[in-house]
Amino acid sequence: MSEPGTLFHREHSGMGALFDRTLGAYLGLAIGDALGATVEFMRPREIAAQYGVHREIQGGGWLKLARGQVTDDTTMSLALGDALLRGGEGALRRHADGDDALVRDMGDAFVRWWRGKPVDCGNTCRRGILRYMTEGTLAAPPNEGDAGNGAVMRNLPVVLATLHDDEAFERLSLAQARLTHHHPLSDAATLGLGQLTRRLLQGASHAEGIHWAQAWVQQHKAFAHTPYRGRATAYVVDTVQTVLHYFAMHDNFEAALVATVNQGDDADTTGALVGMLAGARCGAQALPHRWLSRLQPATVRAITEQASALLALGQAPAHV
Ligand code: MN
Ligand code: MN
Question: What spacing in Å lies between the alpha carbon of 316 and ligand 1's midpoint?
Fold first, then answer.
């Protein structure tokens, strides 16, 4: 377990294309988070002045991260994955029958995450977690201010655990989202990027992914991104426009991610989401080794374990 690349290549062999894409999505999320965090909240011009083109995982940034350290985008996803695995198939089935124990497990996982002093936490996430702690609220009341990207960024574990069940995917995506964010744009973005991820995991090509996203944008015009406005803030509209723009522009994982994070602003989250989409398409074996080997080994281990277990949960027979 000394060197993540070695561990990964050994464990991967023979496990098939779906697992490769699953691991690509989850490790791609972490790579984008770690790469982007260095330039989070910077303007493109500031990034260019300081780094030329920012293309190496090196830590630092406003959070003063260690090299390869990830932030809330990855660690909240892992917390959500823990909750799904803790309850297992039974909890998924009971949620379909109206039992909200699984959503309480998600809330408890976010509370444990929060008490573990995460390196960062968005305002809306913090407010939702504190409300859950003090009032036990499973769904935030609808709020004009909840249109941040915090629910979108952490939804991959739900995608994996419900890969073959459309109804469960929608129901659980919205349940986890509304623990902290309750806004139609957050809901739409969580479902939209989740659906796109599902299609890529199931083998859609880059062109097919772009085509799907174009049709989705026709139904959700707030997220239209042509011409691209160049805004990459944590407002979920800016985030999704940036993510879809750069995902569509490059069919190469590294090129897509470098272009995304050099747009700055919420670069760890736009990076995480482009990394998730591009990684789901290309698979873990195509991830740049120099980036993969810079992630912290504990992160790679946790992601590899979850990717496998969540996929198994999603492969279970229909939740009837
Ligand atoms: Mn973050
Ligand atoms: Mn962020």
Answer: 32
- Report d(CA 47, CA 261) in Å as an integer: 9
Distance between CA atoms of residues 259 and 264, nearest Å? 10
* Alpha carbon of 33 to ligand 1 centroid (Å): 7
Residue 235 β-bridge partners? 148
CA 305 – ligand 2 centroid, Å: 24
Q: Name the residues around ion ligand 2, CB cutoff 5 A.
A: 266, 268-269
* DSSP H helices in 250-319: 253-261, 267-282, 289-292, 297-315
| 320 occurs within a structural domain | no
| 10 has a pLDDT exceeding 50 | no
Closest to 161 measured CA to CA, from 121, 239, 118, 102: 102
In a domain, 156, yes or no: yes
* Mean pLDDT confidence for 198-206: 97
CA–CA dist 13, 236 (Å, integer): 37
Q: What is the CATH number of the domain that holds 264?
A: 1.10.4080.10
pLDDT band at 290 (very low <50, low <70, confident <90, very high): very high
Contacts of 5 (CB under 8 A, 6+ apart): 289, 292, 293
Q: Which ligand is nearest to the CA of 69?
A: 1
319 lies in a domain?
Answer: no
Ligand with an atom nearest the CA of residue 40? 2
Q: 33 C-alpha to center of ligand 2: Å?
A: 8
| Overall domain count for the chain | 1
Confidence at residue 317, expressed as pLDDT on a 0 to 100 scale: 52
Range of the domain at 210: 4-314
224 assigned to some structural domain? yes
Write out the residues surrounding ion ligand 1, Cβ under 5 A: 71-73, 268
Residue 81: closest CA among 36, 125, 41, 26: 26
Cα–Cα distance, 14 to 30 (Å, whole number): 23
Cα 178 to ligand 1 centre (Å): 19
